[in-house]
């Protein structure tokens, strides 16, 4: 079943000048359409500035598009009333690249992970503490880590806390915006494995935004490439991607091969 459907979305940022917005505001997204099925992961690739994060924000309900629709669980995100919107928000979570700026440095891990629970659930302090402890364990940390502050964790551990916060409300979908890009290879591999485990355990769907084709290929079922605000190529099965003649795909594959000689053969990607 389709969980998310983006229909012909076009978006431009308002001009930052003091003068009124003019017709010359260039479109950052132009007629973008895509869909994510329940329990699947779409890897969204593209060069810097292609519009990936902007599309992510539109999908999260944070950036109202100039035109087009975002349907989440069949509801138009930008047309529903505030009550349904709040319900949809709990089912649609996000993890960003910068794990440090995503958290309040003055809050403990327990407070960070407990925040969405406090906003949406009426748990007693003991119940919330137990729920947070379970979430910490679920992402490979210890319940005892709940009292620590962000600076006491490594980048990989802190990203696990961000993931624990994202899954706290048992959402349907998580937008992962370059969520592993700032981590070293070992942490990257471990977090990708954790994300795959959580996906199976909770039936989650992911929009995995990245410029890293290897990471996208590892985790995604379907792959799309954005170029200049448009979806240049979409492959429902990631294996098709390797055979795509589209120049944007060939260029991504080419840059990966030149950077990582050990991935010279197609077989090693799988
Ligand atoms: N808040 C904003 N106001 C104005 N322009 C913006 C804003 N955010 C992004 N842009 C512009 O929109 C374009 C697309 O940016 P976006 O961050 O969506 O691309 P991206 O593909 O995610 O790039 P990257 O991989 O570098 O993060 C860029 O030209 C960027 O400068």
TrEMBL record:
Gene3D superfamilies: P-loop containing nucleotide triphosphate hydrolases. Residues 4-253 form the ABC transporter domain. Pfam families: ABC_tran. SUPFAM superfamilies: P-loop containing nucleoside triphosphate hydrolases (SSF52540). One of its GO terms (molecular function) is ATP binding. The keyword tRNA-binding does not apply. One of its GO terms (cellular component) is plasma membrane. PROSITE patterns: ABC_TRANSPORTER_1, ABC_TRANSPORTER_2. Keywords: ATP-binding, Ion transport, Nickel, Nickel transport, Nucleotide-binding, Transport. NCBIfam families: nickel_nikE. PANTHER family: ABC TRANSPORTER, ATP-BINDING PROTEIN, TRANSPORT ATP-BINDING PROTEIN. This is Oligopeptide ABC transporter ATP-binding protein. It comes from Paenibacillus mucilaginosus 3016.
């Amino acid at each position: 079943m389709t969980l998310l459907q983006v229909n012909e979305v076009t978006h431009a940022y308002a001009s930052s000048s003091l003068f009124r917005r003019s017709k010359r505001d260039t479109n950052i997204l132009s007629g973008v359409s895509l869909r994510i099925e329940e329990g699947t992961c779409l890897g969204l690739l593209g060069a810097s500035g292609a519009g990936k994060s902007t599309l992510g924000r539109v999908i999260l309900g944070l950036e109202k598009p100039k035109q087009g629709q975002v349907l989440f669980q069949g509801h138009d995100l930008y047309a529903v009333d505030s009550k349904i919107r709040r319900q949809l928000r709990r089912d649609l979570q996000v993890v960003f690249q910068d794990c440090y700026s995503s958290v309040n440095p003055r809050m403990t891990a327990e407070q960070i992970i407990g925040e969405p629970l406090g906003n949406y659930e009426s748990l007693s302090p003991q119940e919330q503490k137990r729920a947070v402890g379970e979430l910490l364990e679920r992402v490979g940390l210890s319940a005892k880590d709940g009292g620590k502050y962000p600076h006491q964790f490594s980048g990989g551990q802190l990203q696990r806390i961000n993931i624990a916060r994202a899954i706290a409300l048992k959402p349907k979908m998580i937008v992962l915006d370059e969520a592993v890009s700032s981590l070293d290879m070992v942490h990257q591999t471990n977090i990708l494995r954790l994300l795959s485990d959580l996906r199976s355990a909770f039936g989650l769907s992911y929009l995995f935004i990245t410029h890293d084709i290897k990471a996208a290929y590892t985790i995604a079922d379907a792959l799309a490439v954005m170029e200049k605000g448009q979806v240049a190529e979409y492959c429902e099965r990631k294996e098709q991607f390797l055979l795509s003649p589209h120049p944007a795909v060939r260029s991504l594959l080419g840059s990966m091969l030149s950077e990582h000689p050990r991935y010279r053969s197609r077989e090693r990607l799988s």
